[in-house]
Predict the structure.
Amino acid sequence: MSLANGRSYLAIPGPSVSPDRVLSAMHRTAPNIYEGEIVDITRSIIPDLKRVALTSQHVAIYITNGHGAWEAAITNIFSRGDRALLAATGRFGHGWAEHAQRMGIEVDIIDFGKAGAADPQRIAEALRADTNHTIRAVLVTHVDTASSARNDIAAIRAAINAAGHPALLAVDAIASLGCDELRMDDWGIDVIIGASQKGLMLPPGLGFVWFSDKALAVSQRAGLSTPYWDWRPRGTGTEFWQFFGGTAPTHHLYGLREALTMILDEEGLPQVWERHRRLASAVWAAFDAWGKGSAIALNVADPAARGWSVTAATIPAGGAGALRRWLEAEAGVTLGIGLGMALPSEPAYQDFLRVAHMGHVNAHMTLGVLATMEAGMQSLGIPHGPGAVEAAARAIVGS
């Protein structure tokens, strides 16, 4: 008999759980797209998107996903044949590099592996070696969704400055926006990339690119810029249709308005960050307990280098894959697959999983996932240490 009947829980790193009130806001007939309410709502969304990224500069909205937002940033920064420096700390760093390379950009990749943060000093060294300043931008993920490794963006900006290099700093914050502390202006970020389906608690469909005045100036000579992806009319235009390069994503905008109100005006951004930190701490505490006397382990050993929105881990000998299948079939819980740790054709692919704790997630949701994971380990006979749920509970209330 399965115990999966009832409301299922998708604990994967996007799409995250959408609040009922966000879905209700979207559940309506289409509005007039030329004047009235939707225009007013959009004009209220723009400054609030800037508040989420803690910037006074510019933001563009695209009808796309995170991969499309990558491409939007590339088209507005580069010309074909330009050079970029990319710090990779997981699969999504390499994915961004692959997009740029296919678009004709020469990408110098510094691969920091899959289990830790980038070293700012190595980035500085690479920039110092670029004496002709041919590198146009440094590309880095804030939190890589695959590895769950988090990079110190402020330290990377300091390294760029110490090298005396004029490169832009572009940050993929798709997995961290609205979950981890992120400060565009204070940290000297020129470009931030985000998407709707993670910390912003919406269904997939919207991509966002925040860009500085410096990045705006660079885009004036970007040879890859096209009418649809050009961020200038989206970020600085005066007519409503320019925000979207055509028809507005009407229902997503209603949901986004509700989500931003929840994040900024009701819970408050610092409190949102703290909630994610404590939920992440609970997940880490559970894995630490499971790992005592077993081979279960968190992917990132250093807590300071872990993102607050998603946790990547290993349960060897195919345990991760077996546990994911058991949870979905028997408990109604879906965990994330391990991305970039092994090829799907390799047996080791089944040794990795991810637990998401991003967006509209609270204590009982996270503790419930951990308790059902422990039930699955017991049912499957997966060796694990004791006391995981108790350790998670202590982390929730005491961290």
